[in-house]
């Protein structure tokens, strides 16, 4: 746990606290990444992992996600509404969900197009 916490620049005193007690938003996200590193799942679903993170914490958490994604035996489903996480984490594929269905899938450029052109423009040719 100490090694994983060190990689994510989490204060070692945080390991002595109850889960998420007194943590800031960024500390909670880092603690989640430490927990994921310890549990070592074959597949992780990360739902809005960038929520509440400042730019420095976003980079640290993104680097943690990238480390997991480099392992070909691991899978990550990363759910986000914002490009800023994808500026740090490079996905293999991007899918757009609408009303519970995948309505469009593409490479990382799909997220860039969505950010630049907006949802309606990207979905016009779906």
What does this entry look like structurally?
By secondary structure, the chain is of the alpha+beta class. The chain has two domains: 2-92, P-loop containing nucleotide triphosphate hydrolases (Rossmann fold), CATH 3.40.50.300; 93-126, no CATH class. It is built from six helices and four strands, in the order H-H-E-H-E-H-E-E-H-H. The strands form two sheets. The protein has a two-stranded parallel sheet with strand order 1-2. Helix 2 runs parallel beside helix 3. It is elongated and about 50 Å long. The mean pLDDT is 84.
Key terms:
126 residues, alpha+beta, Rossmann fold, 2 domains, 6 helices, 4 strands, 43% helix, 17% strand, elongated
Number of separate domains:
2
The amount of helix comes to 40-55%
The total count of helices amounts to 6
Low-confidence stretches: none
CATH architecture of the largest domain: 3-Layer(aba) Sandwich
Q: CATH superfamily assignment of the largest domain?
A: P-loop containing nucleotide triphosphate hydrolases
* Strand portion: 15-25%
CATH topology of the largest domain: Rossmann fold
Q: How does the major sheet shape up?
A: 2 strands, parallel
Concise synopsis of the structure shown:
The protein is an alpha+beta fold.
């Amino acid at each position: 746990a100490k090694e994983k916490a060190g990689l994510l620049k989490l204060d070692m005193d945080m390991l002595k606290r109850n889960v998420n007690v007194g943590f800031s938003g960024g500390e909670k996200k880092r603690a989640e990444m430490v927990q994921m590193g310890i549990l070592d799942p074959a597949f992780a679903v990360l739902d809005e992992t960038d929520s509440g993170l400042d730019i420095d914490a976003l980079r640290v958490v993104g680097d943690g996600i990238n480390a997991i994604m480099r392992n070909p035996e691991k899978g990550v489903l990363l759910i986000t509404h914002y490009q800023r996480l994808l500026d740090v984490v490079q996905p293999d594929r991007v899918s757009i969900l609408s009303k519970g269905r995948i309505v469009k899938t593409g490479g990382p450029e799909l997220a860039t197009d969505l950010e630049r052109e907006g949802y309606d423009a990207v979905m016009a040719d779906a």
